[in-house]
Amino acid sequence: MPITPRRRNKVKGVQFTIMVVGASGTGRTTFVNTLCESDVLSHKVCDSPETAHVEEGIKIKPANVELEEDGLRIALTIVDTPGFGENIDNEHAFQEIMSYLERQYDDILAEQSRIKRNPRFRDNRVHALLYFITPTGHALREIDIELMRRLAPRVNVIPVIGKADSLTPRELKAFKKRVMEDIDHYDIPIYNFPYDVEEDDEESIQDNMELRAMLPFAIVGSEEEIEIDGQLVRARIYPWGVVEVDNPDHSDFVRLRAAILGSHLGDLKSLTEDVLYETYRTEKLSRSVHSDIRDSQILPEEMATQSVRIKEEQLRREEEKLREVELRMQREINEKKQELMAKEMTLRNLESRLASQNQNSPY
Ligand SMILES: Nc1nc2c(ncn2[C@@H]2O[C@H](COP(=O)(O)OP(=O)(O)OP(=O)(O)O)[C@@H](O)[C@H]2O)c(=O)[nH]1
Ligand SMILES: [Mg+2]
Q1: Helix (H/G/I), strand (E/B), else coil: 280
Q2: Lowest mean pLDDT across 2-16, 136-150, 204-218, 232-246
Q3: 253-297: pLDDT as tens digits
Q4: Do 104 and 157 fall within a single domain?
Q5: How many domains does the chain have?
Q6: Ligand 1 pocket test: which of 163, 224, 246, 254 has the largest number of ligand atoms within 8 Å of its C-beta?
Q7: Which residue segment(s) compose the domain that 318 sits in?
Q8: How are beta strands 72-80 and 61-69 bridged, if at all?
Q9: Which residues sit with Cβ closer than 5 angstroms to ligand 2, an ion?
Q10: Which InterPro entries does the UniProt entry name for this protein (predicted)?
Q11: Could you tell me the CA-to-CA distances from 325 to 110, 221, 285, 315, 334 in Å, in that order?
Q12: Which residues line ligand 1 at a C-beta cut-off of 6 Å?
């Protein structure tokens, strides 16, 4: 008997990308491994004293992992950015991160304007950037303000305090307050769990208000597990006590995890795709119009004609795509019609053969 290949039970999940940025040693790797409950990222090997002074620059490293959250399968991409903030001049690091984010937008822009879609295309747009603030207990540093201010128009920035157990609850509360005052003062458009009192239901307004009040999230990460009341929990063990990662009295980890991988995953995705990406696309299109104008010294009044031309070009491509679909459908209909006609013909032949057999039959 021939063996028929068994169809794999493919449940479609959702793709989500998180970028983690912050100074070295703020706990990014530990946080990612805690979030994914596996060793997705490896720890940095310490520099030797001979090479510690060498400025290596930033490396941007994506890693993929499959998770399941409330029955939903998540194909998670984690983009780590080791080397950020380690150099005297951080301009290069800002630009590297920015161009990584924009490159993902450019890729999808190119894919969307293709007539034939590439079935293997992977959308790598970053949906959330967790910015790890060093737990200094003072206020934001210039580098924190600069990074968040520059990147927030391109990505949902969620500020978090790394290694939050270094601060006492009182220090943490005051630090959170100061950080948010700075974010307000510098008008940094972070992702602040937006809600609409007119549109949203009572429950989600409440949820968003609570999450907003927690900003910046206090993070504690650990790759160690200990047994508490017969249950294995992730915790940091100190001579004077234990900090439990999942205990809401010890850190905001659980609320942050539930928000980014659960309740707010959809919102972060649609904000990225419908607002941040669309803004980038519009800016890029108008930039190319402006540079065309500069290059060919087109008069300002001809600018409108240029943008109309771009719109016409887009329309033309859309029309072409539609025409292709229409042609394909027409072809399929014709094939089906011919198959039907052939079947009708066979049926008629069979009928007439049967009829003539019946006539010749002696019964
Ligand atoms: N107290 C405390 N220490 C932590 C926490 N998370 C990580 N650490 C420790 O801090 C050190 C650095 O943590 P990593 O997770 O490697 O930090 P990183 O941001 O990935 O650092 P680089 O990869 O070197 O840039 C390690 O010794 C961790 O064990 C935390 O929540 N609290
Ligand atoms: Mg690391």
Answers
A1: helix
A2: 2-16
A3: 999 999 999 999 999 999 999 999 999 999 988 877 666 656 666
A4: yes
A5: 2
A6: 163
A7: 301-353
A8: antiparallel
A9: 29
A10: G_SEPTIN_dom, P-loop_NTPase, Septin
A11: 20, 51, 27, 15, 14
A12: 22, 24-30, 43-44, 82, 163, 165-166, 220-221, 236
